[in-house]
Amino acid sequence: MRKPDELLTADLSEALKHKLEYFTPEDKDDDTDNHTLSRIQSQEPVNMVDDKYFTLEEIRNAIERMGNKKVPGEDGINGEIYKRSFEIFPNYITAM
Question: With contact defined as beta carbons under 8 Å apart, do 60 and 49 qualify?
């Protein structure tokens, strides 16, 4: 994976660390009105009458079907990273 300094990550662990730093930056106090509203809304529970939680097994099955080199979204996280992350944090990934 290419980093902002144009160097490539050395291994999967470094690539995962880079993704986490990029997609979960440090929280700053420079919120716009939209950021402030989003922050407030994200802390309120969203309860819909027909909401159902995904089970750990449903998430595991979905992740296992991913191709290791395929990137399903704009975040650039490939199937191998999802699989390794799920092995380490299955409950956390399911909760997300």
Answer: no
